[in-house]
Amino acid sequence: MNTDALYVLLHRIEGPVNLGAVCRAMANTGFANLRFTGPLDAQSEDARKFAVHALPLLESGGKCRDFAELIRGLDLIVGFTPRSPWADGRDLDLPRARARVDTALAEGKKVGLLFGNEAEGLTNRDLALCDVRVALPAHADYVSMNLSQAVLIALWELTRARAEPIADHPVVPDLADPLEKEALLYKVRLFLDRMEFLDPQHPDRLWREVAPIFKTRDWSRREMQLLLAIFSKGARRYEALQRKLGEDAPPEGDGVG
Asked: Which is deepest, 11, 128, 151, 185, by most CB within 10 Å?
């Protein structure tokens, strides 16, 4: 995403705390182009206080005289508002608006994300000049959102489009080879034989159902080691138990007669 071609537009902003917080939200998400109208400027003490590390962004922000200057030179205007005055097909949810912005930026266009006054939002006249209108998801009982929070949500959604992949190449697990899989099958078959799980008269009948459970899956080498150890130890324990039971059994002929 070309972040240099995206602008955050604040129309008639009045709260210096919000102005500073918006600058922080932009810095946190990697956006740097700010334009705003209203009575505030970069010298506002509270705005500077709440901008914190984003103070350079505030100082470089473009203070505009009016709405016309605010949107000048931009190809796509996305207005954020909880209300929709017209059913004209310009209303998009946040994911679809993000796709629209992504496409415009990929085409080399300049995009403005427009946010209105803290108390009144955007007027119908403002919204009429927007190419797209977006209502940020909020609870139905309280759709009004703090200005800086609204900006952060919108910018965060856009950052998802330019998130770096976790790795350039998928991690290939260290899988057991066919010989190791055969060794596991041998151990399983031996264990089941000793446990007398298989029918002595027709042992292959049930084995044909059991074998694919272990044969068709790709096991990692670690999984293979664990399974081999489980069945080997299980077989040894079973044999030891059988011997103990044999030793504890009374000798033949010692019964009471």
From this structure: 151
The residue among 111, 100, 118, 120 whose CA lies nearest residue 31 is: 111
Burial letters 169-198, b for 16+ CB under 10 A, else e: eeeeeeebeeebbeebeebbbebbeeeeeb
Provide φ and ψ at 124, rounded to 5°.
Answer: -60, -35
Rg, Å, the chain Cα set: 35
Mean pLDDT value of segment 78-94: 87
CA distances for 117 relative to 85, 125, 139, 223, angstroms: 17, 14, 20, 60
The half-sphere exposure of 232 on its side-chain side, counting CA atoms within 13 A, is 8
- Residue 134 to residue 76: CA distance in whole angstroms: 13
User: pLDDT tens digit string along 222-239?
Assistant: 888 888 888 888 888 888
CB distance 214 to 184 below 8 Å: yes
The predicted-structure confidence for 197-215, as pLDDT tens digits, reads as follows 888 788 788 888 888 888 7
Q: Are 212 and 168 a contacting pair, CB within 8 Å? A: no
**pLDDT value at residue 29:** 92
Position 177: which residue type? D
Model confidence, pTM: 0.63
Cα–Cα distance measured from residue 44 to residue 42, given in angstroms and rounded to the nearest whole number: 6
